[in-house]
Amino acid sequence: MRIIAVTVAAVVVASAAHAQTYPAKPIRLVVGFPAGGPTDIVSRTLAPKLTEALGQAVVVDNRAGAGGVIATEQVAKSPPDGYTLLMGTIGGIAVSMSLHPNRGYDTLRDFAPITQAVTVTNLLVVHPTVPAKTVKELLAIARSKPGRLNYASSGNGTVTHLAGELLKLMGKVDIVHVPFKGGAPALTALISGEVDMSYENSLVVTPHVKAGKVKALAVTGSKRSRLLPELPTIAETLPGYNASGWYGLFAPAATPKAVIARLHTEAAKALRLPDVVRTLSSQGAEPVGNTPEEFSAFVKSEIEKWANLVKVAKMKTD
Question: Are 28 and 63 in contact (CB under 8 A)?
């Protein structure tokens, strides 16, 4: 018992000492999607503020692939010292638990949630050549031509994939899924006419909507967007539909609690800064900044919620 007590005390002292000197070197913030996409935009908005607050550079590292799963696995296997963080997404963190059985991590076991950064609503958008002006008209077209329409997503298991499958399930239509390696290439494919429709993050698609390059039909969340209040929600046509996205900060499990607390404090402060709120809100993202405990409970609920869709819609990785 004395040996155990001494060992525990040594671990506590070492953890406290680490927290007092943290951070002593640059911090890597891993993003599972290409530069220019919505997850990247949120990360690069937050990183300079964390750099200023922590006194060490917070460097965004884009590791695209598998809908964020590759980056998520990489961070899960990193040393739990607070120097490798993840801007986690609904796909890599929540949906992967049921959609990717061969992933190299377990979200609840391998991660320490820090804070939810934002909630983001996506827009259902179509190429200008698609004649539909409403969700009702789009569903009618899809029903008249089963398997003819297709939709782009930012990858298997991402919120844009889930949004498409949920529409197919609730709208009882056959629309083909075309996955890309991130939101930026998916949007490029839509603008070029390579695909008919997509569920694009309002962070990046709104300028293209205003420029007439794509048509926005509806909002995927439970309420209308403050940025485009004239757009109805999909739920106004399909009651109960809701496919909002979110991003949040995570560290590997076993990262010292004092380090998690420091990161949460500074991230939450940054998310309340007027210029950060203005930048994110103007593009359709709502800053959150909740506690690690609140974020952890939210992540658990999201894993359960989307596991049900994966099962009912019989979703599989390609």
Answer: no
Alpha helices by DSSP H, listed for 199-256, are 202-210
pLDDT > 50? residue 50: yes
**Which tokens hold the place of 178?**
């075309």
Q: Determine the pLDDT at residue 36.
A: 85
**Starting from the edge strand earliest in sequence, which strands make up the sheet with 215-219, in order?**
176-179, 150-153, 197-201, 122-126, 215-219
Per-chain mean pLDDT for the chain: 91
Residue 263: its pLDDT value, please? Answer: 98
| Dihedral of alpha carbons 204, 36, 107, 27, sign | negative
From the number of C-beta atoms within 10 Å of its C-beta (0-12, 13-18, 19+), residue 5 rates as: exposed
Residues recorded for the chain: 318
Q: What is the C-alpha separation between 119 and 280, in angstroms, rounded?
A: 10
- Interstrand relation of 215-219 and 122-126 (parallel, antiparallel or unpaired): antiparallel
Judge contact between 197 and 149, C-beta under 8 A: yes
**In the CATH hierarchy, which top-level class contains the domain 2-16+25-119+244-312?**
alpha beta
122-236 has the same fold as 2-16+25-119+244-312? yes
Predicted confidence (pLDDT) per residue in 150-186, tens digit: 999 988 888 899 999 999 999 999 999 999 988 889 9
Angstrom distance (rounded) from CA 16 to CA 26:
20
So where are the chain's domains? 2-16+25-119+244-312, 122-236
Neighbours of 58 (CB within 10 A): 23
Q: Are 30 and 65 in contact (CB under 8 A)?
A: no
- pLDDT tens by residue, 239-263: 999 998 899 999 999 999 999 999 9
Cβ(285)–Cβ(203) under 8 Å?
Answer: yes
User: In this structure, what token pair is assigned to residue 238?
Assistant: 């399909």
Cβ–Cβ < 8 Å for 34, 181: yes
- For residue 145, count other CB atoms closer than 10 A to its CB: 12
